[in-house]
Amino acid sequence: MSAATADVLVVGAGILGAATAYHLARRGLRVTVAERGAANREGSGTTAGNLHVQAMHTRRPGQEVPVDSERLVPLQKAASDRWAKVSEEIGADIGLQRAGGLMVAETEDQVHELKVKAGWEAAAGLDTEVLDGDSARRMLPSLGPSVLAATWCAADGYANPLLVTQSYLTAAQRLGATVRTFCPVTGLQRRGSGWRASTTGGDLDAAAVVNVAGPWASQVAAMAGIELRLTPVAIQMHATVRAPALLPHLVQHIGEGLSVKQVSAGTVLIGGGWPSAPINLDGRTQASVASMAGNLAQAIRVLPPLAGLRLLRTWAGPLAATPDEMPVIGAVPGAPGMFLAAGTYAFTFAPLWSESLAALVAGENPPTEISDLGPERLLKGENLATPH
Amino acid sequence: MTGAPVSPDACDVAVVGGGPAGLTAARRLAAAGLSVTVLDEQPELGGQYYRRPSAAVIERGGDHRPAGGRLIGAVRDAGADCRTDTSVWGVADDGRTLLLSGPAGVATLTARYLIIATGAYERVIPFPGWELPGVTTVGFAQHLAAGDGIRVGERVLLAGSGPFLLPVACSLLDLGVHVVGIAEAGTPYRLSGRGLLTAASFPARLAEFARYVARLARHRVPLWQDRVVARADASPAGDHVASVTLAATGTPATPVASYAVDALCVGIGFRPQSEIARLLGCSLSGDPWSGDLLPVTDPTGRAGQSDVYLAGEARGIGGAGRAAADGEVVAAAILDREGRPGGDRRAAARQRRHARFAGHNARLYPAAAELTRRLTAALPDDVHVCRCEAVTAGQVRAAAAVAAAPQHGGADLGAVRALTRAGMGPCQGRECQATVAALCGAVAEPAGMARMPARPVPVADIAQLAGTPVASTPEVTG
Predict the structure, then answer these.
(1) A97-156+231-318 has which fold?
(2) Is A38 in the B-facing interface, judged by CB distances under 8 Å?
(3) Are strands A250-253 and A101-105 parallel, antiparallel or unpaired?
(4) From A301, which residue of chain B is nearest by alpha-carbon distance?
(5) Which of A264, B112, B115, B123 is spaced 20 to 30 Å from B281 by Cα?
(6) Are B127 and B267 in contact (CB under 8 A)?
(7) Taking CA atoms, what residue in A is nearest to B413?
(8) What is the pTM (predicted TM-score) of this model?
(9) Does domain B368-439 have CATH number 1.10.10?
(10) CA–CA gap between residue B478 and residue B322 (Å, rounded)
């Protein structure tokens, strides 16, 4: 049986895969997206959907290495600028809400952190303002007395994770992309100057492979003989019953894993990267009661009115963590035509990363400097894909 | 910060659900000297079958099921710790400790044995007009009638499938309600070899059935077979159900006759509540006949090699008689494992007899999975299937096309949920999941895990658990 062909195989139909397929198809490339399950069912569909525009807490609970916020702020600004155009670009409602956000501090050290990061944000051209506790409470009366200061960022917000990925996929399909769901990639081999992918739906030959398989990215890379230090972990989210409007802004914490917002449906989403039960890559991952209790205790300390709401559901979602907690994006060394994007703030960065990957595949420079975030630093030992 | 810390609590046996199964087990185990805690989310024990009538109703007409009051009294007298108004909403990270929410806030309970006797939900399949005021479940009409002596309406039509329609119609007649008729989707009351065999093998049940039928005949209540609700329509003011249109079961969209009513009660039997069993990691398997997921247990109700037992409707629909027998069988199994006397040796035979009857009887009625498929296929696109999130049949069908998973025999239910929000509201899909699954071409919910909380719980209660130690299981008492 002869293999199907495409210019580019995108592995994974999460937000990165969907958006990258869109940008590749826009360039006139023939794209096939192969997804092991249904589209948008893993990290991209289970995230709270926050757009991290201002710098935030640098550690998820249990995270050992902090994020280098100073490096990321200019990229967050670039991603934020792109989010403003996504809906118009792909012609779909993505539930984008930019009602601004507050990053709160509860200790003097955290207040100092707010002031330092405000400097980085100013340098990146991002408008933020440090408010004292009382000014913050005037802006958001739900904030509790423990809040000593908060940074206001009008560009903070969220997009609806249940809408964005599917909208990108639909736009990509309109431009000719093929989306194969329930079609796991089971093998990747060099073939000529490109790659042959074995899938449960048959073989596919493509000049380039974009690995955006999230928690499965290291498994996919391993099929091509590339050992990546990229670890799947699962974090959990919490949703309350619908409540009257009480929280117009996104509220996050500079020192602890906490993010809270009220979405248009009226439910309040509480997260912050607390760990769930150990990740189950073959099924659904269970939530952890310890994290649930810890995250909710923290939420009602910062936002006391949440105490009276009822929790409706909790769920876990996977992500791919790098050893340095920084995102990874770029061409995979030793594997010509193979590209990778994963890691920190993947949802926020999706419009930027997808545009960047499409540029890299086309042999152009990406729109922002990202060469320091390449996959080199994640390679383990020998990584040479052998040609056949 | 968030109130007093939660003190861990422990006992020998925790019984989740105080209906016939749970109460029967609790009475036996407490009488044998084990420390037993019964948890029930209702204000009084009894479950649905032994739901206690209000004081006013008892004064007026007596207790319609005095055995329930005696059983509850016996459980309390045997020393069981009975916690009503208490929901079990989760299982701690140890996979074993129950998380409770009650009048005093949150609590944890660790038990050496767990008996899950959470009962069943009523099965309802939407139809045009099912959201109108005046449309209720059959069980709700029964609660109003037997518990509070309240008529659900003055002119009432009952529709659905299963033996439960008949006693509810009789309860309504007791209150002086005009029962317009009973529409049964199947043809169980036509003379058939299977019907005769069932009747002849279980004379007591035949007598009970005959009493209901005689009662209905005396009041000239029509019993229509092979009929389903095609739609319900509102009064001119638009605020209440005023007429019901029936159709033949094979062609649910083709009207046959309409009836003026002021209430319509619907119900297609029951399906087990399996959330707590799932949270405890019990395995479930799809039942092709009902389309439901049933916990996998041995004949004593034990789930795998665990200390978790299932009893009553939570284990599979079989009626109150089998539920009580289940309770005895589970109690006997636990007492055996404890090396204690006091188990009822004859309960296993009783349980088998009840199960045999339930099996024969169920098969006189249409298979719920097939009926669900047929009725959902006929649903117009504009009918809500998920009331919490106002999701229509058409939206689910469109999402099912997007999330098609042909190699899995239907659409990916998780993806459909995400695309439509069906099942994401306050009931968390308890009401709509079977309908949504059928619209997606899936027979049963895939055996996934249950999400916490199993019931909505105040955020402040859960926050109280932050940093709470979990009790170790106690030593054997007595």
Answers:
(1) D-Amino Acid Oxidase; Chain A, domain 2 (3.30.9)
(2) yes
(3) parallel
(4) B1
(5) B123
(6) no
(7) A38
(8) 0.91
(9) yes
(10) 30
